[in-house]
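Record 1 of the preview.
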Amino acid sequence: MQSAVIVNSVRNHWEIENSLHWVLDVALKEDNCRISKDNAPQTFPVLRQIAVNLLNKEKRLKRGIKNKQFLAAIDNNYLTILLALAKK
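->
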């Protein structure tokens, strides 16, 4: 019985880990990143996670993270809305 609980806990952990990694890789192309100088390898994953959190927090548009990211890149007004979510 106890081993089944442990197995389920590990499986749940990896399910969450894999879904998060999928978002970071597909939407933000994390696996293609070749940043390796100074503090950048430690800094950019944090920045990517902040970006994913803000894009998920924005509920006005019913679009995926990749589309919201693209819209923020081409529309400064939408980018301002996303950045304002960081204060809330």
